[in-house]
Amino acid sequence: MVTGRAALLMALAAATLPLWPSPWLGLAVLAGGILVLSTVDFMLAAPLREVEVSREGARTVRSGETATVSLRVANRSQRVLHADIRDAWVPSAGATPATHEVVVEPGSAVTLETSLTPSRRGDRPAVRLTLRSYGPLRLAFRQRAGRPATPQWTLRVLPRFDSRRFLPEKTARLRTLEGSTVTRGRGQGTEFDALREYVIGDDVRSIDWRASARRSDVLVRTWRPERDRRVVCVLDTGRTSAVLAGAEPRLDAAIDAALLLAALALRAGDQVDLLAVDTAVRATVSGGRHVLLPRLVNALAPLQPSLVETDFELVVGEVLRRERKRALVVLFTALEPGALGDGLLPVLPRLATRHKVLVAAVHDPLLAEAQGDPYLAAAALRTLNERDRVRNALTRHGVEVLDAPIDTFASRVADTYLALKQAGKL
């Protein structure tokens, strides 16, 4: 194939046609000469079969950050490789530069770096590698689909986990909670900690009379929040999770809050499981405290909303099948009458009788700020009233309900977990 440079050379040569005795003869000679030059240039281009490419570099990156993937190009031929290489990724991978211009000496290799700044969470694959090998004069080039073969590579874009900035504060509150609870009497969600001497103000019901008799002193039992409780994060990945809350889908806000809750619960000594469901189970993670958070992040990365109605019968069935002991079930969903009224409420009693249930929903803060346009304000008011009716219906079944704007959603979920733990309701 010829390049634009050959056409430009032909245009420049055409300017000499008036000097020829016969313009047609001159045109034929010039065209023939350029064709010969292009053919020789094509033959001198490095053959594609002698070019080998491979990749190395980052496999994962957090959303909003930049990763680097290297492309190694080796020239096994006896000719110099003059090439343009287009390394195409999916558009949301944010690959730059899109094209590399290289010169590779015979028997050597070069490494090209591509910076990836993904705009979306999930798996971002390399699509196609196109190599165009030019001759020394760049009048002609070799190019063939599939040669060299595109080296497969997929960059997994992990959730941003912006809410981790709240983790030190929540952890400090957790330690304060555990320290203060040790000095109080026994309650639901507590376990025996130690014996100590009685002081004025202690609950006399905490006196251990047998231990006091053995020590000839008055001893009281102290209690601490029970550990090894179970926390189950259930992500609704149905159609309502695709609705934007602020600048991101509800599912992304739920993932961020679930990661903060999981990190906090793990530091509290609780066991955390995760389930993502719509009409099928999309992701499940359980067990393994020391490696659980990386597994959660990796499992949630490719999760995307499905434009289907969530099967809450399946959700409840999966939770009851997997969790035999009493657990805190945090259901990240939307407070919509259509989705919850017809789907969740009929099956909720089965779940609430065995587990403590928290329904966590995120809403767009614009709902509370729609004041300018009367029609928009009326629609927002109607939506808020419907959410209140759903919240009241869930509360009547003994379910805790959290409805928060996106900017405070993750923090409010963690606060609710700490409040339930302090009240001994887990």
UniProtKB/TrEMBL annotation:
Protein name in UniProt: Lipoprotein
Keyword vocabulary terms for this entry: Lipoprotein
Lineage of source species: Bacteria, Bacillati, Actinomycetota, Actinomycetes, Micromonosporales
Domain DUF58: 195-366
